[in-house]
Design brief:
Blueprint (H helix, E strand, L loop, with lengths): L1 H4 L17 H13 L6 H15 L3 H29 L1 H19 L5 H30 L4 H30 L1 H23 L35 H5 L2 H30 L4 H28 L2 H18 L6 H30 L4 H30 L3 H20 L15
Helix pairs in contact: 2-6, 2-7, 2-8, 3-7, 4-5, 4-6, 4-14, 5-6, 5-8, 6-13, 6-14, 7-8, 7-11, 7-13, 10-11, 10-13, 10-14, 10-15, 11-13, 12-13, 12-15
Length: 433
């Protein structure tokens, strides 16, 4: 246990002696870790869905139910990994989770039976979409306070670029060599690249490296003063759950995850319903990725100029607009405009989700709070594809679910605008229970 929880930096790297703030190294590793969640994400699984179904002779509806339960069970990993981060530190947890995800993906590349594949998909959801996502986001929140918005913007940009590179590369390998070769390559990458990088480079907090003492202003090295945590109330998970702001922002992020996962899995069929071919679908993915990257830039900048409330409200209203417009797309320009707005809204929401929890509730219990919020998003992303599938089966079209979800998103946007954010200011004589 002592070796696992040790956060003492190896002698080859001493963050306190470097000429730059070491938090930026952690941002880079955290972004790489988020890209490493690809085999556990809906978009990643979507890259191999068709060849997987043909290879194993799995019924499409049955596979949708496998995905649903795998995602729901995998969401439980969010809570568990949050406790591990708070207890042992992000360095050891990231290393262990990367190794375990890599092993699972490697085994899946050789799997034959439906039962084994279902189990392995569940584990990729748990270790990938849930656990690895939580530790990735938490790392950034542990290292930045006053520059958190900038750090999250850089983090979002790096992971967006990473996914933009990963999706076509993995897709090309799937087409040319098969899904098993692609999955084996990802597994080896997680084990041989991400896990060692996490162990060598990641550190728990600035204080653990001697860069800054919590709440101290003296004796701080040049370039680190901006990263000093502001003295304030540190919310526990129970206290965070008692605030309306947690629920509004968690539900807003979760509903976005529900919509994004449902569309991601069935986007080709959705556009085919409007008369567009597969190439239009591929082009729309590129537009969404590029505009999401732009949304990361704008979102990071707007969090400095605006309140989190206004930015989340704007993002949700943009998302609602794209949902209302989707059933009416007729031309390539319409598809491009829909993808542009969807990408921008997603870029904003991602930046907010990555920075909101540590800014509003503090860093002391960030792992648990971040894990709880991530669990809502993971559960919603499990429901999204099944919701769309049930809708098209019962009504013959995706339009109905888009109209209903647009109303929900509009209401959440209004709630985000109006909900008060809890104060972390310490009142004289008050205690943080």
């Amino acid at each position: 246990m002592d070796s696992f929880s040790s956060e003492a930096p190896p002698r080859i790297i001493r963050p306190a002696r470097l000429p730059f703030y070491y938090g930026w190294v952690n941002v880079g590793v955290a972004a790489a870790a988020m890209v490493g969640t690809l085999p556990g994400r809906t978009q990643g699984l979507g890259l191999i869905t068709e060849p997987l179904l043909k290879d194993l002779q799995i019924d499409r509806v049955f596979f949708a139910h496998i995905n649903l339960w795998a995602t729901l069970i995998g969401a439980l990993f969010c809570i568990g990994v949050g406790k591990l981060i708070d207890r042992f530190g992000s360095r050891g947890v990231l290393t262990a989770v990367s190794m375990m995800l890599g092993v699972v993906v490697l085994v899946m590349s050789k799997a034959q039976g439906i039962v084994l594949v279902a189990l392995l998909i569940t584990l990729t959801r748990g270790f990938g979409q849930s656990a690895l996502s939580v530790v990735s986001i938490t790392i950034v929140g542990q290292w930045f306070v006053r520059k958190l918005n900038l750090a999250m913007a850089v983090y979002s940009i790096l992971l967006s670029v990473g996914f933009m590179l990963a999706f076509p590369i993995v897709g090309a390998v799937v087409v040319n060599s098969g899904w098993r070769v692609a999955w084996a390559g990802i597994g080896f990458g997680l084990i041989l690249f991400l896990a060692p990088m996490a162990w060598l480079l990641v550190r728990r907090t600035p204080e653990a490296c001697g860069l800054a003492g919590a709440g101290e202003t003296g004796g701080i090295k040049a370039g680190t003063i901006e990263e000093l945590p502001e003295r304030g109330i540190e919310y526990t998970l129970r206290q965070a759950l008692s605030t309306p702001a947690f629920w509004v922002f968690a539900l807003s992020s979760a509903v976005y995850g529900l919509i994004a996962s449902g569309i991601a899995l069935f986007n080709e069929a959705i556009l085919a319903e409007r008369g567009f071919d597969a190439y239009t679908y591929y082009r729309s993915l590129v537009i969404v990725a590029l505009t999401a990257l732009l949304g990361n830039f704008l979102g990071g900048w707007l969090t400095v100029k605006w309140s989190m409330n206004k930015l989340m409200a704007l993002a949700m209203w943009m998302l609602a607009g794209s949902l209302l417009a989707l059933p009416y797309v007729r031309t390539q320009v319409h598809v491009a405009m829909y993808a542009l707005v969807m990408g921008l809204a997603g870029g904003f929401i991602i930046v907010i989700f990555f920075s909101f929890w540590s800014r509003v509730f503090g860093r002391a219990h960030l792992g648990r709070i971040q894990g709880a919020a991530q669990a809502f998003t993971v559960v919603a992303s499990a429901i999204g594809p099944l919701l769309l599938a049930e809708c098209v089966e019962r009504t013959g079209s995706y339009a109905t679910v888009f109209y209903v979800m647009a109303c929900v998103v509009l209401a959440l946007g209004l709630s985000a605008w109006l909900v008060p954010l809890p104060s972390r200011r310490i009142v004289e004589g008050a205690t943080n229970c």
